[in-house]
Amino acid sequence: MTEHLPALQVVIPLMAAPLCALLRPGRIAWMLAMTACTLCLLIAALLLERVLAEGVISYAMGNWPAPWGIEYRIDTVNAYMLLLVTMIGAVVMAFARPTLEQRAHLSKRKQPWFYTTYLLCLTGLLGMIITGDAFNVFVFLEISSLSSYVLISIGRDRRALTAAYQYLIMGTIGATFILIGIGFLYVMTGTLNMLDLAARLPAVADTRTVRAAFAFLTIGISLKLALFPLHLWLPNAYAYAPSAVTAFLAATATKVAIYVMLRFFFTIFGAQFSFETMGLDAILLPLALAGIFSASVVAIFQTNVKRMLAYSSVAQIGYMILGISLVSVTGLTATISHLFNHALMKGTLFMALGCVSYQIGAVRLDRLAGIGRTMPWTMGAFVIGGLSLIGVPLTAGFVSKWLLILGALERGWWPVALLVLLTSLLAVIYIWRVVEVAYFRPAPEDRKIGEAPLVLLIPTWTLALANLYFGLDTSLNAGVARLAAQSLLGVTQ
To answer: For residue 476, which of 349, 351, 336 has the smallest C-alpha distance?
Structure first.
């Protein structure tokens, strides 16, 4: 059975999804979905262990050898990403059930459909990561995207429908660009297998078709990962989606899109073509810096805390793209490490806000007055996530920001290193706004609320403690990330 783990990683959530739609009541469907997510997490951990011990795993679907058949290929990079996505998927699934059961307009009859859609989204994300076939990346991208639109649209606020529609339009444009780019590559090489593409592209790299494919893929992937200024779909999507959905998408969707960028530009096209021939770093660097600074400033002035953290995510995506633009082992290590760390911190922050919303029904800043005293455990988790977001030492966020600064200094880009420090101070401002209102303003006298239920606090604190643990033990979030960076750049240890 162990030899089929790569296929089971995708098959389990894919098969569990329609079964959830058939099960009643919603709690039974949740138990099946939770079991599927837990199995995916265990499989991802086993795959990462095997890759670190034995090297790359190649799995031929239907025993058709690559490049004729579809190959699932697992190396250090995507094994690391599989662990990240499945971990977040399992933790957020545990968090989702109480929030759904509280929602009056999402009836018990409809709750199984939520778990179906959630598992389909997870299937799409895992498929994008594990596949070694370029066209399958597009197929799984569409599965995850269509599911995301539905998940966002069920938010309480009617603006969730508008946000989902805006995301649908932007996401469709991005997916179309990606499909066109993959089609151009197929026209020039006659193959869709990623390793085969990497071997055949150098012979035709000087053609306008390959350059056009590169341009289409760059724009399409940038739309999907919400790179500034193509990020306009993200703030509304995160702000108005249900809290569990926001936590899941913020911690996984954009991270997987960045993984796709890494896979295309380093594995398929190669770093030399992407950054020396096409000069991609000259495009990514200014956009990343602009996104980091502008999104951090905009976040300061938001009154909806979920929207504030959404703009913060745009800035954090800028940090990851900045690491890619350094085109060095240290820079890529910072990017891959920050993929992991940002998932932990944003998962913590959005789930803490989900606890707040569960108790008071709102996440507007003025409604949080005094909530630090009435919900100390919830706000304690929020503070830990905020400290990690800022990059305070002994938190996970510090590790990747430190690596990013080191990468910039290695290149002699000290102004970039200073900007990273400056924008971290901007993060202090908008996180402090929440802390000041929650702890130093009196609570309304007519508000009688207590702490969030334990079933919400356990998954929230699981990620909060992970922020502290991985700030102390960096063997996974930085150690494995360095191995992944060396693999992408073809650097021997």
So the answer is: 336
SS3 71: strand
Residue 366 maps to a domain = yes
| CB distance 298 to 311 below 8 Å | yes
Enclosing H/E stretch for 298: helix 280-300
**419 within a domain of the structure (yes/no):** yes
Total number of domains constituting the chain: 1
Residue 370 lies in a domain: yes
In the prediction, which pLDDT does 492 show? 56
Domain ranges, residue 366: 279-493
Give Rg (Cα) of the chain.
21
Taking residues 344-355, report their average pLDDT. Answer: 91
Among candidate residues 289, 314, 318, 319, the one with its CA nearest the CA of residue 299: 314
Q: What token pair was written down for 470? A: 């991985």
Phi, psi of 74 (to 5 degrees): -120, 120
Q: Which amino acid is at 120?
A: L
Element (H, E) at 84: helix 76-102
pLDDT band at 491 (very low <50, low <70, confident <90, very high): low
Q: Are 403 and 333 in contact (CB under 8 A)?
A: yes
In sequence order, the β-bridge partners of residue 364 are: 304
Query: Is 117 a domain residue?
Result: no
pLDDT per residue over 136-181, tens digit each? 999 999 999 999 998 888 877 788 888 889 889 988 999 999 999 9
